[in-house]
Amino acid sequence: MVLKAITRSFFRDKVASISLFVMLALLLVAVFAEVFAPYGIDEQNYLNALKSPSPEHLMGTDQLGRDVLTKLIYGTRTTFIAGGMALIIPILVGVPVGVIVGYIGGALDDLVMRVLDGILAFPGILLALAVTGVLGVSLTNTMIAISIMMLPIFARLARGQTKQVVERDYIYAARLAGANAWWIMLRHVLPNISSPIIVQSSFSFSIAVLVESALSFLGLGAQSPEMSWGTLLREAYLALYMNPWMIVFPSLAITLVILASNNIGDRLRVALDPRVRSSV
Q1: What is the CA radius of gyration of the chain?
Q2: 81-119 per-position pLDDT tens digit
Q3: Distance (Å, whole) CA 68 – CA 14
């Protein structure tokens, strides 16, 4: 029923449909990068270094004569993995923590919320920079840094939604029937707070992609031979005056993913929230 509502909602909105198609197409490119890439990732030709777009190299070449389109395709895989993996810890850890403290309340709720408020007090990108600086420079540590940045968002969202759900009549009925707290949280609370979690995941994915690209641009994310859109931006910046085309395509790719992910999130919010859906 939920899937049917989501499908109907997406088909009604052309922008959301296009955004979904873009994300699925990019995901397909990320999975089958070797198939779509016109050249090898390490294929160099110094005679073609820093060339503008041409029929042979649709997005031009870099300082070593490597095809920019090929690097962008392989970077799609790294960027999507980083964005997706960075949401696993917030969802698997933050959501259960939010549900538990929201259901139990009391001193535990106050303690956990103060810790989360302390994390949220730091600007997101600054916190990610600090965590990366402590753990070291690597793509894995970048994903951990983004996860720590995202965790309070999901925990607070789950906690707030749980606070609303526990006041519903079916929760009181489950308690009167003798169900224990863990069963109620798993069977009645989690399914009823899943919609805002799904919507937040879509928005957070775009943030994760942006932060990963920013850290990689600063040299704190993906390292050679790993390729991400952020590393492409860094390389393009170093050769900006010799071949400005290099910076255009990864910038457009990042912008496209962020816009598409946010549009999908907006449409999911409409599809999964009956109050919003009835007013549209």
Answers
A1: 22
A2: 888 888 888 999 999 999 999 998 888 888 988 898 888
A3: 31
Domain positions in the chain: 2-279
Provide DSSP, 71-138.
HHHHHHHHHHHHHHHTTHHIIIIIHHHHHHHHHH-HHHHHHHHHHHHHHHTS-HHHHHHHHHHHH-SS
Helix (H/G/I), strand (E/B), else coil: 197: helix
Architecture in CATH for domain 2-279: Orthogonal Bundle (1.10)
Distance CA 51, CA 39 (A): 15
pTM (2 decimals)?
A: 0.86
Instruction: Check: CB of residue 154 under 8 Å from CB of residue 90.
Output: yes
244/36 Cα distance (integer angstroms): 24
Residue 18 pairs with which residues in a beta bridge? Answer: none
DSSP annotation of 168 reads: S
Give the whole-angstrom CA distance, residue 229 versus residue 23.
16
CA pair distance 72, 41, nearest whole angstrom:
10
Residue range 133-154, pLDDT digits in tens: 788 888 888 888 888 889 999 9
